[in-house]
């Protein structure tokens, strides 16, 4: 059976993808150790990978990438949140799935998988019905995207690479529903310009420093990577500037408020 290969370095990644034939489906799972939904997604992908008999040459490959430790790979695939699954073939992105959505991941793999013509009848033709072993305890709010330290490069839009078309803008109701989930994605959520490792404004940099000085565990969202959220959050929060700090789904404020008070849950200090 196939397995989920953990990528140790950029060189390891390049060697791995170079070993795959152009027809092989590459399933990349981007994760961070601090995002709880990533644990569920890892279990899902390990189970899915085990359903496939290895072939020569490979027809499918499952790999896991630490999005924080290997930021250049994350940037290559435009990863701004975890868990984040990318399906790729011949260095071209076929589909990207953001957030913990096991059913969608399973269906995407089933849709795009193409058995090798010489793999024989034992090669997996499709993925079976949803697995009972998939953990279901994680709250829907926890399954929302957890931001990771990787901002788009200068001039880079929010479209996917290789010329993928932008998705149609959501309605205000849909956008507010998404934002309502994002502000509760972690007990402490920071909406900032850039990422903790590469802040794009002085205020965001200062607020990241405050959180680190207080040893606060937090999720974050890079508003520069999603203009819909950037503009929608201003109205949703009735707060026109960034960064914005949210605690337990409630807006605390910006940098000035965070300096004057300690709003962080005790369990996150």
TrEMBL record:
The keyword Iron applies. It comes from the Eukaryota. Keywords: Iron, Iron-sulfur, Metal-binding. Residues 141-150 have a biased composition (Low complexity). Residues 138-170 are annotated as: Disordered. One of its GO terms (cellular component) is nucleus. One of its GO terms (biological process) is intracellular iron ion homeostasis. GO terms for molecular function: 2 iron, 2 sulfur cluster binding; glutathione disulfide oxidoreductase activity; metal ion binding. CDD domains: GRX_PICOT_like, TRX_PICOT. Coiled coil: none annotated. Residues 188-252 form the Glutaredoxin domain. Residues 9-102 form the Thioredoxin domain. It holds the Pfam family Thioredoxin. Transmembrane segments: none annotated. Monothiol glutaredoxin involved in the biogenesis of iron-sulfur clusters. Binds one iron-sulfur cluster per dimer. The iron-sulfur cluster is bound between subunits, and is complexed by a bound glutathione and a cysteine residue from each subunit. Belongs to the glutaredoxin family. Monothiol subfamily. This is Monothiol glutaredoxin-4.
């Amino acid at each position: 059976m196939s397995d989920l290969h953990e990528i140790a370095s950029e060189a390891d990644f390049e060697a791995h993808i170079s070993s795959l034939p152009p027809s092989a489906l590459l399933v990349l799972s981007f994760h961070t150790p601090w995002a709880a939904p990533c644990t569920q997604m890892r279990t899902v992908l390990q189970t899915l990978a085990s359903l496939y008999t290895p072939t020569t040459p490979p027809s499918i490959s499952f790999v896991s990438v630490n999005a924080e430790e290997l930021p250049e790979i994350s940037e290559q695939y435009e990863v701004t949140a975890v868990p984040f699954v990318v399906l790729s073939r011949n260095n071209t992105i076929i589909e990207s799935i953001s957030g913990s959505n096991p059913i969608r991941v399973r269906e995407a793999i089933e849709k795009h998988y193409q058995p090798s013509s010489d793999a024989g009848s034992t090669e997996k033709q499709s993925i079976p019905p949803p697995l009972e072993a998939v953990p279901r305890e994680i709250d829907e709010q926890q399954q929302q995207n957890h931001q990771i330290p990787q901002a788009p490069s200068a001039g880079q839009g929010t479209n996917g690479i290789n010329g993928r078309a932008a998705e149609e803008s959501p309605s205000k109701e849909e956008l507010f529903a998404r934002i309502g989930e994002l502000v509760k994605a972690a007990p402490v959520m920071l909406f900032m310009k850039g990422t903790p490792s590469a802040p794009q404004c002085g205020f965001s940099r200062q607020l990241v420093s405050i959180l680190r000085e207080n040893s606060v565990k937090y999720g974050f969202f890079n508003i520069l990577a999603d203009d819909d959220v950037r503009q929608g959050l201003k109205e949703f929060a009735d707060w026109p500037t960034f960064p914005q700090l949210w605690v337990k789904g409630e807006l605390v404020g910006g940098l000035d408020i965070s300096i004057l008070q300690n709003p962080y849950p005790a369990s996150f200090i």
